[in-house]
């Protein structure tokens, strides 16, 4: 229930109580006057009733009836409540700003457009305190979240003073989604500068970028520490493509069979879907090429651009490219396309065009020319409501169009999981999985020996620090962490000396962390007394412990490759 609704209810309740007390008070004074032979007019009795609010009235000193006994206690309370309620309305803004001074571990959202408003609602629903920053008052009003979040500050996220007012030095995370890539990057730079002196753990900053290409280019920068901020970039089209494949993707096929997949629309979402399909196929069927059909008014040109950005596509995909605009089709082109559908019908269709009306029209077209309800057709729509509601099941549970499924783009991407899924977080999870894989069966019980989803945020922070250490270790060897452009084994091979250096640096980092936490060397491990026999310099470490560290270092580059990165020599 919104704060506005609660406020109105309180005013309505106060009005009812005032009406009831005025009736009771006036009735009591009328009865008192009659008992003592005092003739008062209606306004006199009303005046005396109102005097009860100040605990001072000039009525008779004779015995009071029950109405006056009740009124003289309740009316002052009502008066005080009314004053407090009025003050809460008049000074609400000041109260909220005052509370911001003490806010901590909250979420700051810069931008209340479609993405920001939905993420704000998601964080509030998860029990998080949210402070929003939005320069346009009209946008903030349309977002409908002003009464849900703790406070909405009007201004730009590029304003250092406003970020400090929002409590950036005490916030747990920041989400930047202003709607402009240039502005978002500028806000990121200000956040890095403002949080440079932050004493707490680095604030996690997720930055939305509308361009999937730009997101890819900044992936390596995603891993860099920026003062007191850990910055990650996310793109809704990329996340949406992976979400669609995870839940509504092509049905399972036999290992040797190559499905005929068709994608209509090669905008940002369509191109991201092609790339995600190719990566998924390459992982599941190495050496076998996927043969999708790609339909777009500029299918050939967009495919060539995609190949330039991702050369590995040539090793994975051999598409059929159809330059066709289904809104204004060329007669010969549409005949060729219909012949293609008849000769080699697809086994799965994704309609990835951004315009909802066009998407619905293309869904209807494909539904008419394919086997009735036998070919899954997934249609991208903004949300489940609006035009997307036309594809919702009928009241009796029957599908609106058999075989046609709705994919609500914003509903599936504007989630907490989306902003949590930055590169650093992905690698931190991979590091933890690597730790679990190398954990000895007889290892002592530890709070870390659990799946990533079950860890506390403090436990996850250890893996995040490990990722920070990985980038520093690679840097020390003259290696940069860059987006993986070729799927498969990484091109760089570490020498034995480099593996030894990585293992030694990893041990030293563990040594420093344990020592800072109060651990000391001991001949026998004792968790209660914080003693560990491995708390010695790398040179004094037993051979079996060194071998373990070296094995972990050997697995570093394959682990990075599995998560879309590789090490490149400068």
| Structural category | alpha/beta
Query: What percentage of amino acids are in beta strands?
Result: 5-15%
For this structure, what is the CATH class of the largest domain?
Answer: Alpha Beta
Q: Please give the radius of gyration in angstroms.
A: 33 Å
Low-confidence runs: none
Name given to the CATH architecture of the largest domain: 3-Layer(aba) Sandwich
Nearest-integer average pLDDT: 84
Care to count the β-strands?
17
Percentage of helical residues?
40-55%
As for the CATH topology of the largest domain, it is Rossmann fold
Quickly count the domains. Answer: 4
Biggest β-sheet: count, sense, barrel? 7 strands, mixed
* N-to-C span: 57 Å
Number of helices, where a helix is a run of at least 4 consecutive DSSP H or I residues:
22
Question: Strands across the major sheet, in which order?
Answer: 3-2-1-4-5-7-6
Overall geometric form: flat
Report on the architecture of this protein.
With 570 residues, the chain is an alpha/beta fold. The chain folds into four domains: 88 residues, Helix Hairpins, CATH 1.10.287; 141 residues, Rossmann fold; 174 residues, Rossmann fold, CATH 3.40.50; 148 residues, Globin-like. Helix content is 49%, strand content 12%. The protein has 22 helices and 17 strands. A seven-stranded mixed beta sheet has the order 3-2-1-4-5-7-6, with helices on both faces. Strands 10-9-8-11-12-13 form a six-stranded parallel beta sheet, sandwiched between helices. A two-stranded antiparallel sheet has the order 14-17. A hairpin with a 2-residue loop joins strand 6 and strand 7. Helix 18 packs across helix 19 and helix 19 packs antiparallel against helix 20.
């Amino acid at each position: 229930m919104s704060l506005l609704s609660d406020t109105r209810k309180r005013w309505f309740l106060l009005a009812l109580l005032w009406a009831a007390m005025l009736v009771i008070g006036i009735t009591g004074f009328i009865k008192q006057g009659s008992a003592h032979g005092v003739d008062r007019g209606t306004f006199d009795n009303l005046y005396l009733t109102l005097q009860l609010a100040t605990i001072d009235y000039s009525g008779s000193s004779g015995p009071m009836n029950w109405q006056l006994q009740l009124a003289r206690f309740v009316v002052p309370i009502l008066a005080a409540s009314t004053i407090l309620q009025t003050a809460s309305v008049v000074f609400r803004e000041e109260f909220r700003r005052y509370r911001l001074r003490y806010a901590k571990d909250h979420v700051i959202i810069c931008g209340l457009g479609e993405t920001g408003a939905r993420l704000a609602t998601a964080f509030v629903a998860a029990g998080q305190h949210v402070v929003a920053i939005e320069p346009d008052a009209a946008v903030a009003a349309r977002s409908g979240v002003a009464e849900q979040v703790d406070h909405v500050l009007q201004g730009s996220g590029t304003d250092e003073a406003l970020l400090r007012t929002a409590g950036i030095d005490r916030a747990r995370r920041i989400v930047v989604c202003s709607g402009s890539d240039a502005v978002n990057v500028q806000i990121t730079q200000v956040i890095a500068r403002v949080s440079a002196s932050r004493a707490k753990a680095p604030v996690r900053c997720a930055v939305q970028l509308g361009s999937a290409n730009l997101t890819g280019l900044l992936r390596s920068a995603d891993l860099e520490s920026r003062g007191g901020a850990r910055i990650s970039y996310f793109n809704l089209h990329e996340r949406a493509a992976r979400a669609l494949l995870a839940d509504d993707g092509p049905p399972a096929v036999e290992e040797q069979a190559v499905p005929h997949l068709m994608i209509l629309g090669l905008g940002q979402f369509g191109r991201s879907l092609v790339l995600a399909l190719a990566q998924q196929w390459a992982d599941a069927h190495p050496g076998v090429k996927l043969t999708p059909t790609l339909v777009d008014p500029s299918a050939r040109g967009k495919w060539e651009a995609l190949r330039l950005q991702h050369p590995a596509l040539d090793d994975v995909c051999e598409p059929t490219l159809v330059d066709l605009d289904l809104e204004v089709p060329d007669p010969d082109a549409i005949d060729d396309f219909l012949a293609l559908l008849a000769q080699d019908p697809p086994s799965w269709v994704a309609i990835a065009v951004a315009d909802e009306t066009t998407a619905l029209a293309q869904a209807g077209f494909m539904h008419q020319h394919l086997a009735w309800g036998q070919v899954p057709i997934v249609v991208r729509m903004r949300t489940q409501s609006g035009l997307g509601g036309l594809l919702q099941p009928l009241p009796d549970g029957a599908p609106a169009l058999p075989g046609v499924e709705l994919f609500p783009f914003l509903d599936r991407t504007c989630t907490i999981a989306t902003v949590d899924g930055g590169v650093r977080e992905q690698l931190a999870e991979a590091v933890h999985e690597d730790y679990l894989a190398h954990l000895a069966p007889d290892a002592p019980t530890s709070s870390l020996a659990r799946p990533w989803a079950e860890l506390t945020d403090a436990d996850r922070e250890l893996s995040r620090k490990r990722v920070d250490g990985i980038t520093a270790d690679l840097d020390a060897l003259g290696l940069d962490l860059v987006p993986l452009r070729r799927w498969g084994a990484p091109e760089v091979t570490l020498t034995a000396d480099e593996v030894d250096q990585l293992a030694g640096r990893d041990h030293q980092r563990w040594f420093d962390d344990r020592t800072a936490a109060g651990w000391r060397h001991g001949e026998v491990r004792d968790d209660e007394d914080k003693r560990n026999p491995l708390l010695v310099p790398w040179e004094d470490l037993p051979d079996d412990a060194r071998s373990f560290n070296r094995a972990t270092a050997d697995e570093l580059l394959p682990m990075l490759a599995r998560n879309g990165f590789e090490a490149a020599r400068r």
